[in-house]
Amino acid sequence: xxxxxxxxxAQRFAEIALGHVQQEYPHKLDHVMDGPEDVLSPRELHxxxxxxxxxxxxxxxxxxxxRLRRLFPDTPAAExxxxxxxxxxxxxxxxGELAYLDRxxxxxxxxxxxxxxxxxxxxxxxxxEPLARxxxxxxxxxxxxxxxxxRVGTHFNTAFALILALSWAEENDTALADLIRSRAIHYYxxxxxxxxxxxxxxxxxxxxxxxxxxxxxxxxxxxxxxxxERFLPRLREGEPxxxxxxxxxxxxxxxxxxxxxxxxxSRAWCWxxxxxxxxxxxxxxxxxxxxxxxxxxHVSGDYMGEHWLAxxxxxxxxxxxx
Length: 322
Hints:
Layout: H1 7-18, H2 42-45, H3 55-71, H4 78-88, H5 91-100, H6 113-122, H7 129-142, H8 158-172, H9 174-188, H10 207-231, H11 259-273, H12 281-295, H13 303-306, H14 309-317
Helix pairs in contact: 1-3, 3-6, 6-7, 6-8, 8-9, 8-10, 9-10, 10-11, 11-12, 11-14
């Protein structure tokens, strides 16, 4: 694979995230107002995650910073990241974020994308333990009630959330890990002959490939190989062709169309994550490189992409696919 995560790229990504995790406006709230007293600013509602245009992007912006700080402790950005953590990731502010979950009509707040990213961030920031436990409890309640998986390539996608949540649960909650595995097999275990009619016009996830990566994580290598052979039986012949073709992004200033940059980056992440499957190594690396070539140059430049795309570039470039 020709693309790799270097200290120079890590520094660039860190500078991007440092530039927006405390930028309060513009902001798109996921917030239900139950009365005039609920008309509050992002910073009043969310003492930590008020930046980056929306709550979930701010959460994974912090994840990016802390992951890069751990992987590259000697970059020039490291001291600024440390100062940010000391200022923002405090027990008092975590309690403020936790309190938001007790507000009226908050049951569906950031479900499941933001929940999953909060768990991922806890793996880098132990102070978030109370918030992570609250979202783990929500997963434990929600998954048995979710009869059908949500397959759209946006924030509601079930498979993407299960990937991140499983990595957390394997370290912190064996019962939740078991539940995630059983629900993933229930949702996807019998899937066959995927046509991969994607992407949709505003998707940032490949429904087919993120499902494949989820099952790779759930089943392990030996059981995954026969599953993917049934799910994508012509993959070694380059079919469905849509899975090998990066999305075209016609307008990077349009927040929804700009999602397609993330589509390319997250699909590269998925290709790399299944590359150890027998017979798929070279195919997967070529496909991952093609998708990175298409969108890696565009992680910054317009705020509609800049507030989140570096996170997905990091997913695609790192070696931890969970």
